[in-house]
Write a structure and sequence with these properties.
homotetramer, EC 3.13.2.1 (chains A, B, C, D), 7-stranded parallel beta sheet, globular, about 475 residues, one-carbon metabolism (chains A, B, C, D), 8-stranded mixed beta sheet, Adenosylhomocyst_ase-like_sf (chains A, B, C, D), alpha/beta, Ado_hCys_hydrolase_NAD-bd (chains A, B, C, D), 15 strands
């Protein structure tokens, strides 16, 4: 335990207790510490706000988030009679934000008990964590954890006397990994894992392949609704937002090369930039995606064909070393380089950490890398995901993910013995459709209902599912 | 046999024979008949052309089509050494067009023998049929067949002495159905069926489900490349073209309701019309598709909410009775109604054939249906598919389908015993990718190759397949 | 019955002679000739229709056009009490189409007498001319006039005993030119000229500059509403339509170079093609337009930089010899070349009429020009305007022009002495706004009215004009 | 050293007094104050930077700005031989930013002496002001001036012994107004005024109308290049950026009403939001603009028709009280209201300052106005211009304005006696074209040159101007 004095630790070691007793004592210390390091990256005006105001503001942020997460609120309402998660003890490991707070409060309203850690050392909104703690939730997280802190927090979620989780809600697989490694026996009581991230899902499939997955797992990441929203509708806006907030670049007339033409790239990046007047080139390895790029009006090139002329380079491949030092050497002065893909390996950033190159941080998340001849490359988020690092995720998108997570927990928790084996599952189509339908009222959208005759003609149940599971 | 004097029948009953003897006698009769009824619907200037010129022009049309079907030409070239279809006897039932001619000539170059009928009583380009016949192919088809003609032609393809097919290439399933019904023993020698249409594939799955499918079948319709092209890239252009050619309507400012928001509708119809300045409303039954419509910027409504105000109604659902008499009664004067979906059942056209309504044909494929108060509805193609009836399909799109068909034939014909069972298969991903790659040179598109390191990182073979089979 | 001696009547009553003495025979011949060569280019199904049906159909076409020209119908209604053109004798020279018929009938309803000739030897819809003649109008025009016919018809409009025009409605300036040349004294009674075309307006400005314009003239061509519609909204649709009808080309992925980036090009061609998935390059001589092309996302190139790689070349400059033989020599096989500009001089078509090149007409308006090595260029409309030759103009666009013409006639005819001198004028902004407002109901569009306070703040009259005259 | 008494120097050299006697203390105070309240709105990470670093960083910002203002750098280069502004004494009143610094340094390189004040009390980048002062320029400005400060600074620019301006560069007309009011005799030596803003230009036209304009003035605001960039290309990006930075709203599926359909609105706001998946309604008073909105695919409504359902309200009219309390009362909870027009009068913000409504500042530039029933309206920038308040202006756009200003100064300063009278002029078209051409290299854009023959055909000089002055 490297650091004996950390805020939440302190508060947890003090007179109060989370789950049972509440409140848990000396928060003032905590808050002092928290607020000195404050400043969520989405809020540049914090400096004008006093700590007191911040806290008030924050429960308000949760309140505002509630308004934009209508589906969770609808779930809460429907749960007033019945408690589908009564008896559920959910241990979670996700980003700690106002939206997560709405999810946790919803799970609680559905009958569950929750203990939570952060899945990322930077992303915790401290005020939200504090507000949740005030509200009686056991949250172990703060912005700027060390790696040791990170694992310590996770451990605190599960290693607690008198409370044993029976459901896991994970984002990245770290929590699942920790339990596998430290407390494998705990799985005997666990009814299922709900996993949200690409990485976490990948790990689960590997476990399953190796015959080591010992409970059913629900792959939330690949649910259609989430996929479409995260990859397409969200990236379409965050590519513009991320570039603008970091560089103030004008998009009109800029030449851009986008590496990869999958869902993220297609409408997410390429279409948005094209709409703003950029000239977009695409690179691809898969001929089918390549042909789609052509038909959508993008020149398909090899990176080296255009590297000298482009103003912006964006990677969205999921591959590694897509942009390497040789490419970076040939870029023109002022070229912006960033990553919208699924990993931080796409740009070989390590290759830029050599003595002849000078790094200069010009803004948060923005580095100028300077060549001996004075040429500057503008590297965003050090090659990590632009949309997560330099942009915000609209609450509405998070609402879809959170609702899907809640439904996946309900499904796994209530499924009759034998419906799910020790394998990785996609959310049943019908529940995916249900998630979508809960979000339609936001748009004042009116769904058409099948007539009996039409349902019969199509061989469908009038209430869905309307598409086969594999349909995207 | 209701009609003793039909052109191809005549020629086939005369002195010559197709496959063996050639030529087949008294073509002059045939041509006279053909050319008096001539005029492909895509060519409004035929009246200026003499029959003689037409025939010349037509082999030229095949020649021109060859230039736009580079993938088939590439296949021919690669086949110069080896004949992957040597010994194959292919019986086909498709639209008879210049593009089909290029396919047939390619199959022939690959070593196959072909006998062909039309899958549609209207779509045959007589000059192409004639040119193919001149070139030695056994083609049984003409524009404007009766239903009896239709089945007679199909029968002539298979019911022939001394020649028995070992491969079926079908579009709609009628040929397959005929063989099942009349010559079931023929399947003993048949190595496989390649089916192109939704309907035909549906029939095959039903056979398979019922345990009655007795040879392997390849579902070409659902190959990714074909799907993307037919549904999206093609419809995007043909919705505009079909409406313009039939009605000369100006798109700017028009209010349009599109029923259904699947692939055809999404980018195909809605995006194209939006780009031209129309205001587009969408109806949907599936909440996932509905949410996508919302996010793409279309108001999601029930048909009745907007039926009084829209200028154009387009159906793309695959469902039946999507637009019924009640809706038609409420449309405003001059409203255009058409169908881009998968069946001719979407608009309840039968309900318009009542005594109080007057029908008036104002152009080919365009009817005015007139209410007693003088209100006119403009009904296109009597509710059949607009894109097939009133627009043209670019050769490039047909090239993708034809190449896929050719590869599917090669795959089934050469597959080692046991690779394919008596079931319906999708084209292996790798061959789908191959089809796409053969079309990239058209766009001067340059594919990126994986490095060894990247292939290893992704767990892929450097030459593909690059995506799982279910990937779209 | 405004005119006892009508051309159709005349010609039908016995053999006559053209002005220069050529006999034009009896009308039955004329009609036979007319209808056998009939077939408006917008109507591919004429061959199925008998002459009798055609004529019936045509008054129906006028009726249908009336429904899409709501502004003229509104003018007619308002004229029921008052006849603003009472006493006006309008001689016109325009395209003779169903839409012109609606205009003429409107002028007549407003009190005017009309005599009309065609401004183009090909564009007359014979059935419309016949229907107008039947309705009592003096129309001198048929499809396929010789140049002598053309001038004879014009002469017949003005050279008539007992009737002298006091207003001119011209499209191209030929009528005005004829009167200047043959009957200059006629101008003494003429109150004004309304001119619709670029060329005609140019001629008027030259006359004015030379001090030879002897009556006020209204430049209808440059009215804002007409400009926006003709140049932008109309071309946006007609570029796609014209290319599709002539070549069936697929737009997706095609490389296109557009010469010139004015109004026609900008949204008209470039934006439409971009929306359909083409990759568009632009050439420009004016740096301001060039910069706009850049910001809109088009690579600005010199023609020679891309001429080898493009699939389609479109000229929209108003300049001459923009595409010359040297460029044509370098194009790739199958390249499509067409003109959307203001003249037929943009493509140096004459340079293609050399012995080593073979011309082959493949469809109406489509020529293949074939190089000795077999390379084919697809030349549309022999370099004349694609949108006029190969596409249709929506009635709604023509409605705007026709309404503007009618209002310009009313304005000039009723203007108090001295308001207009012997000069060329633009339509007063307020009347331009009135034309626009008459077309809004078509879109169910609701205009906002200024409050008194707002009008005062802006220094405007509540009823307009809302913008200065130069505003576009 | 043009001016021994510079403000920064002054203030740093000891306590001073404002014009009206208020003391403004010693500079160290000033700097402390400046940097503690610092934080340019474009830079959210200032809190991590020490004052020392900030200043270093800032001359770097000027350096970076230089790279994106290639046209000014080109002017500097051309001025190496000749000094077109030698002897010019320019007094300026503009926003004080890195881009202005590049302009001032350019004017200086061209031979001019400069004294400068800020045209806005909030927009000064203090570090830039400091860097300019360090570099020897007389700059009187800081972020957060009071109104008295504001006029004091302006006065300090002109009221200085031994230095009298002969050129005015104004943005808003306040400087011009001050000289008119306080030092009218100064105009005797002034050769001209260059004015950049709508308001300032309006004032000049009023002066001219009243016969009180006593020197020539150049209206830079209405130069084509500036207009297109500021109104269209810039707003297209800043509407998205401004909304995103302040509210993180997701655009997809949002219903938006845009009041006014002029240049700003048209492509600036409406097209950008449409491209991001919003459903956009438009209100207009001018039927011509209204018809364009219809043709571009937007429903034209009165505000009240949609006010209950929209998620975002944007004003771009230039009018006053476009959104009034009655509208605000009817908006739904969470509705965002902002202004992109030319004044801060469009939204009647004053009407919201009533006791029953609660205002809550949730972020910088973002207020929640809360109704008694809990409904919240999200008001941005208190109704001031969103694009200036909540977004950044790309350097490239400012480069165009700054280059135009520099050329206007050169033109007025060097014009032969009599070319310009005491009136308001637009920049000659040719210079406008020159500004554009200086910016083309940024896009690697290649302009086509007219041949002699073409120039003759068009009646143009080969080097321009290519369009009449009124052309946009």
């Amino acid at each position: 335990m490297p650091d004996p004095v950390r805020p939440w630790k302190l508060s947890r070691e003090g007179p109060g207790r989370y789950l049972d007793g509440r409140p848990f004592g000396n928060t003032s210390n905590v808050f002092e510490c928290l607020f000195s390091s404050a400043a969520s990256y989405t809020d540049s005006s914090d400096d004008e706000t006093s700590p007191r105001d911040k806290q008030q503001k924050n429960s308000k942020e949760i309140e505002i988030a509630e308004q934009e997460m209508p589906a969770l609120m609808a779930l809460r309402k429907r749960a007033q009679g019945e408690k589908p998660l009564a008896g559920a003890k959910v241990v979670g490991c996700t980003h700690i934000t106002a939206q997560t707070a709405v999810l946790m409060e919803t799970l609680s309203a559905l009958g569950a008990q929750c203990r939570w850690a952060a899945c990322n050392i930077y992303s915790t909104q401290n005020e939200v964590a504090a507000a949740l703690a005030e509200g009686g939730f056991s949250v172990f997280a703060w912005k700027g954890e060390s790696e040791d802190d990170f694992w310590w927090c996770i451990d605190r979620c599960v290693n607690v006397e008198g409370w044993q989780p029976n459901m896991i809600l994970d984002d990245g697989g770290d929590l699942t990994h920790w339990i596998y490694k430290k407390y494998p026996n705990m799985f005997k009581k666990i009814k299922g894992i709900v996993e949200e991230s690409v990485t976490g899902v990948h790990r689960l499939y590997q476990l399953s392949k190796a015959g080591k997955l010992c409970v059913p797992a629900m792959n939330v990441n690949d649910s259609v609704t989430k996929q479409k929203f995260d990859n397409l509708y969200c990236c379409r806006e965050s590519i513009l937002d991320g570039l603008k907030r970091t560089t103030d670049v004008m998009f009109g007339g800029k030449q851009v090369v986008v590496c990869g033409y999958g869902e993220v790239s297609r409408k997410g990046c390429c279409a948005a930039l094209k709409a703003m007047g950029s000239i977009v080139y695409v690179t691809e390895i898969d001929p089918i995606c390549a042909l789609q790029a052509c038909m959508d009006g993008f020149r398909l090139v090899k990176l080296n064909e255009v590297i000298r002329q482009v103003d912006i380079v964006i990677t969205c491949t999921g591959n590694k070393n897509v942009v390497v030092r040789e490419n970076l050497d040939r870029m023109k002065n002022g070229c912006i380089v960033c990553n919208m893909g699924h990993s931080n390996t796409e740009i070989d950033v390590a290759s830029l950490r050599t003595p002849e190159l000078t790094w200069e941080r010009v803004r948060s998340q923005v580095d100028h890398v300077i060549w001996p001849d004075g040429k500057r490359i503008v590297l965003l988020a050090e090659g990590r995901l632009l949309n997560l690092s330099c942009s915000t995720v609209p609450t509405f998108v998070l609402s879809i993910t959170a609702t899907t997570q809640a439904l996946a927990l309900i499904e796994l928790y209530n499924a009759p013995e034998g419906r799910y084996k020790q394998d990785v599952y996609l959310l049943p189509k019908k529940m995916d459709e249900y998630v979508a339908s809960l979000h339609l009222p936001t748009f004042d959208a009116h769904l058409t209902e099948l007539s009996d005759e039409q349902a019969k003609y199509l061989g469908l149940n009038k209430n869905g599912p309307f598409k086969p599971n594999y349909y995207r």
